[in-house]
Amino acid sequence: MKNDGIHHFCDFNQIYLDSCEGYSKKAVPQKDPDESNPEWRITVNPAAELVGSPRLRALIDRLYHHQKLLTDFDAKQILSALQCMDPTAELLLPLLTVLSNATAYPSNQLLMREFRLTNRVVEMLPDSKHWPRSTRVILLQCIANMAVSSDNMEVMKLALNHIVSRLTSEDEMEVVVAMQALTNLSINIRKEQIPKFVPVIPHCLNRLWVRGEVNLNALRLLVNLSCCPDMVPYLLGNKSVSGLLRILDTDREEVLIRAVTWILCTTSAVDALNLTYDRIAEHNLDPFHNPSHTLYFSIYGPKGREELETQARHLLNHANKDVASKSARLLETLANVSPIMSL
């Protein structure tokens, strides 16, 4: 359920490479010539020459079409370009595309961390909100792909708030990619991260149904959120979705297996934490705090529970053994959850 660029070659000397990365050992004086200082010399920023040059185009073309694994020198050139490239630059989009594609290889992910490319991409995210749409989306996709590597989590967590804010974008593709990124970042939610993920819940529920179809991106993210037991009270306190349990009535196995998994994880948390409405009430987002409007009541209230049990029993004989097995576990776990009275 996890999801799944372009460069240019430049022949710069080591002084340039060091200074571009902030590692220069000796500052170059930026003042008028001083005869008493024979070491004075005028310098230019070689990275500025790299950006937009035929060399960068060639690097991008090489990495996009012929070379899958990055070299140390490739990483340095990409970093130099990203540090000074204008957001409207013609080559920024293909450069980020190359980088995004390169994340498919673990060795590239390692190299990106070592040469701070991962950090640089995350640093670009806050300012990208007003970038051209295609460049904005590919930067977010690059981050989503980098988030696949668990070793990137310490860097990726700095992007979390900005990714969550993209869920309110009017661009559907941007929202989809933001959900992919959040799905990859929510594999193992730490307790201190819970407040950052809580605002994600209503967006997922609001997008669970799209034009009469279950939104797989929203469902994947809901599964991950429910796998963190401490997230479940927040989840169940949210406003319910009309026809929620219809997600179990589908012929699409990729939807069905995740739907059963989501309800099973949620019910397991309710059982393990002995959750009752009293524990969930503080997270009720209904303006009038009406319990019957919560997700908790939709699933475990008399009507919802009866429908859930009926659906689960029906799925016991499903051809997909994973679906059948999880449905059996759901019924067993549900039996441990005390019924709630009609409100």
Automatic annotation (TrEMBL):
<keyword id="KW-0812">Transmembrane</keyword>
<keyword id="KW-1133">Transmembrane helix</keyword>
<protein>
    <recommendedName>
        <fullName>Armadillo repeat-containing domain-containing protein</fullName>
    </recommendedName>
</protein>
<dbReference type="InterPro" id="IPR011989">
    <property type="entry name" value="ARM-like"/>
</dbReference>
<dbReference type="InterPro" id="IPR006911">
    <property type="entry name" value="ARM-rpt_dom"/>
</dbReference>
<dbReference type="InterPro" id="IPR051303">
    <property type="entry name" value="Armcx_regulator"/>
</dbReference>
<dbReference type="Pfam" id="PF04826">
    <property type="entry name" value="Arm_2"/>
</dbReference>
<keyword id="KW-0496">Mitochondrion</keyword>
<dbReference type="InterPro" id="IPR016024">
    <property type="entry name" value="ARM-type_fold"/>
</dbReference>
<dbReference type="GO" id="GO:0031966">
    <property type="term" value="C:mitochondrial membrane"/>
</dbReference>
<feature type="domain" description="Armadillo repeat-containing">
    <location>
        <begin position="95"/>
        <end position="261"/>
    </location>
</feature>
<keyword id="KW-0472">Membrane</keyword>
